[in-house]
């Protein structure tokens, strides 16, 4: 029986073919000089490179042709795990013994291979139509793998881990700040946005003006909005008694929190309006027939039915704010953006990665968990088959 080519597999094979001509790792004598590109067989001992090449070839073959979906998922996860182990070994192999200054970074070929097989894994998960708890379990397993990998010291000779070793205390302090900005602005937007959304749903006179203002805020570039808030908040801190004592100032976390709150309102308000608009009229009619008050209908009928749509808006806000909180570092707000902008200023890309990688990981994890949660709270007839 002839093999049938998979369309996505063709793309993955093409990406892997391009990755073969790109460096697997880069060696630098110190953190700021230009790197020396190293191909797969130069970055690893010969036998390790050969094993990885064979596994990659097998993975490409399974991806290229239409194979069972479980095979595709298992293959993608195995290849991804081996790639991360291999890049850790490349760091140890390329770093001279006792050298604390040299830096080994993943090369473009490594990142392209990660992207290709992550794409294969995502496609396999989508085809399998995994249940919400199963998807969360897969995410937990991936997190456990990285925890074990980091704890084992396999990646310690990579440049990003060396940057972390020099900034461990600062890293966790900025991580707390980043989460506080993202989650705090989300909580404030949820508390304020849901009542505003209910008001807009109930009153056509309020709906258009409120949504237009919130849409206008969304069009302001994030850096510009952070900057616009410096002057008014500085005035508040200087002229209103007690404002400075509670942390309000022209720079720092206060303008960052206000800006993130402003960006967060539109998704929460709009999804609340859409969710309440989508409540079947028959459900409201039945509630009225039972003698329920307006408040009882809202809390026991309308809001529970609209909740999955509202939660989708909260999911959008959380993923958005995890990314936007990075910009807060420009006005002294802290967060992972501190490392990103320090790295840009020092031409140290490994320091940039120290801020960027956890930001991306947090956003991805938040999206997976909240997507699964939305599906779990959705009515059964609206879930994925």
UniProtKB/TrEMBL annotation:
Domain ABC transmembrane type-1: 175-370
Subcellular location: Cell membrane
Top-level lineage group: Bacteria
GO BP, one annotated term: glycine betaine transport
Major subcellular location class: membrane
Membrane topology value: Multi-pass membrane protein
Pfam families hit by this protein: BPD_transp_1
Keyword RNA-binding: no
Keyword Transmembrane: yes
CDD domains: TM_PBP2
Gene3D superfamilies for this protein: MetI-like
GO cellular component, one term: plasma membrane
Keywords, in A-Z order: Membrane, Transmembrane, Transmembrane helix, Transport
Bilayer-spanning residue ranges: 44-65, 77-96, 108-126, 138-155, 175-200, 212-237, 243-266, 298-318, 324-344, 351-370
Family assignment from sequence similarity: Belongs to the binding-protein-dependent transport system permease family.
Protein name: ABC transporter permease
Organism of derivation: Devosia insulae DS-56
